[in-house]
Structures are given as C-alpha cells and as structure tokens.
Amino acid sequence: MVLMTDETQKPKMVHGTYACYTNNKCRCELCAGAAREYMRQYRQTEQGRQKSRFYTHLAAKRASRAASWLKENNPEVWAEICLEINPSTYKNGSR
Ligand SMILES: [Zn+2]
User: Fold this and answer.
1) DSSP 12
2) How far, in Å, CA of 65 to CA of 14, rounded?
3) What is the model's pLDDT at position 9?
4) How many angstroms separate the CA atoms of 88 and 94, rounded?
5) How far is CA 8 from the centre of its chain?
6) How far apart are the CA of 53 and the centre of ligand 1, in A?
7) How far is the CA of 90 from the centre of ligand 1 (A)?
C-alpha cells in the first residue's frame, strides 16, 4: 500500500527551473535566472521573435496614444516631461 500524503501528492518545488518560476510563482534568484534564460532562448525562436515584435508594436502604439492624450489634455505636463527629457530642444514648452 502506498501512502498518499499531501506532501507526496504535491509536485516538489525544484528551484532554478522555469517550471518553479511559472507554476509556483517563485521569484527567488535561481528561478528568476532560469526564467530569464528561458525567455532569452524563446525570443530566438521564430515564434518568439514574432511575439516580441508584436508586443514591441503594441507598446509603441500605446505610448503614442498616451502621448497624444497628454499633449491634448495636459499640455503643461507634456511640456514639463519634454523639458526634463531634453532641456536643449524643448524650451518654453514648445517642441
Ligand atoms: Zn525558486
């Protein structure tokens, strides 16, 4: 007879693995490192490259929309951000 305790039924947490990072949501240095390496390799696959391009595209679109909204609705904040990012180009809130 095999005793099935809670301990034996639970999959063991093996740190330093992508599975532990995703399934157990462990964020220890070993698991975070394994996840980084997994994603680094994934981005080198064709599917990974496509996904990466897609999310980069979404981020650019989102940033553009956010900037337009800010310019329109909060021009003084927009000017402040522009000045902070490039003091020589953006003077007096102009572009
Ligand atoms: Zn871990």
Assistant:
1) P
2) 43
3) 63
4) 11
5) 35
6) 29
7) 46
Task: Write b or e for each residue in 9-25: b if 16 or more Cβ atoms lie within 10 A of its Cβ, otherwise e.
Answer: eeeeeeeebbebbeeee
**Among candidate residues 53, 31, 52, 30, the one with its CA nearest the CA of residue 41:** 52
- Token pair for 92: 């007096």
Two tokens, residue 73: 């609705």
Q: What sections of the chain are H helices per DSSP? A: 6-9, 18-23, 29-42, 46-73, 75-85
- 81-94: per-residue pLDDT in tens? 999 999 886 555 45
Record the tokens describing residue 25, joined without a space: 């949501």
* Centroid of ligand 1 to alpha carbon of 44 (angstroms): 24
**Positions in the chain short of pLDDT 50:** 93
What pTM, to 2 d.p., does this model score?
0.55
Report whether 31 contacts 16 (CB < 8 A).
yes
